[in-house]
Hints:
The protein is α/β, with parallel strands linked by helices. It is about 30% helix and about 15% strand.
Amino acid sequence: MRAISRRVLLGSALTASTIGLAQAPAQAGGGRALSVRGADIGLTLQTEDLGIRLRDLDGRVRPIEQILARRGGTHVRLRVWTNPPAGYSNLASALTLGRRAKRAGLKILLNLHYSDFWADPGKQPTPVAWRGQDLPTLAATIRQYTKDVVAAFAAQRTPVDMVQVGNEITNGMLHPVGELYPTDGRPEQWPAFTTLLKAGAAGALAGAPRGRRPKIMLHIDKGGDNGASRWFFDHMEEYGVPFDLIGQSYYPIWHGSLADLEANLHDLAPRYRKDLVVVETAYPWTRANGDALGNFYPGPEPLPDEATYPATPAGQAAFFERLRKILLGVPRGRGLGFFDWEPGWVPGVPWAPGEAGTPNDNLTMFDFGGRALPVLRAFRRP
């Protein structure tokens, strides 16, 4: 997720109509449950430090990880920046949230940005302390850093279950060394980029405790774009990058209709023989704004499925019900599940120091006062 404009790299190679999905909705999977029903909770400590408390569907105040677990959630996603501004998602805060998540019975997806602050397709800055390193040195740095972070979770008896090697790495990472689409005339840096990915994956495995191998995820932001998804993962296969999971961001604000998502997932699963996770998603429950900073939604164009899923609490809940069915319908059970992005990021917590608020406050799973919305039922098992 990011507060910048999205960059279109390629047009779609496969549409919903190509495989008939627009007219044939996915079935619910014969009673099978999604094995991943999670949320990104990286801004929880900042929220709590401001005195903000969240209320569960029964009206009781609970920490967000306990609310997720009570509603049937299975995982949390924890972001780690290398040297962020004070009070944001560093390793220490992620370890704290990891302990809380494990006590609640939740598993952990570790989201390594390999940057000091926000990283996404529009910006993948190398941490200041790592700048100027050549490719072999930078690869060694990433391997050791990843090993150390994963080992830190293991040392406190909260081993991670999945590791993202980078965040929304559609345009590479650790620019300029691993940049895929340079604007200065340099060629695409696929060899360097994939060298960095391999180093991160190796570090994740080296830091894990014996018998607790984490699954490696590669995460891009092309949930509704099959052409761009194929372009990226074809290169991953060409360069022999080891990974277990395909992670996709899917926000209807930027990534097309649910039919586009369904078509893409139905193609990717058999093509790469990998399990799939919609690792970032969110949907509006209102058109209103809860603070002084403008929101991602509403934008200049309506959402692709807004007539069916209006920006209301009921419309938001219906959107997630449809998303569940789409994931359950992915061939061979490869649609593992979803992570909602920062469901508790209610007004009051700025996305960066000095900012007026959050651009995400009407995409949450709690209203502006921190009261639970019906969409929380999407975390249930059956």
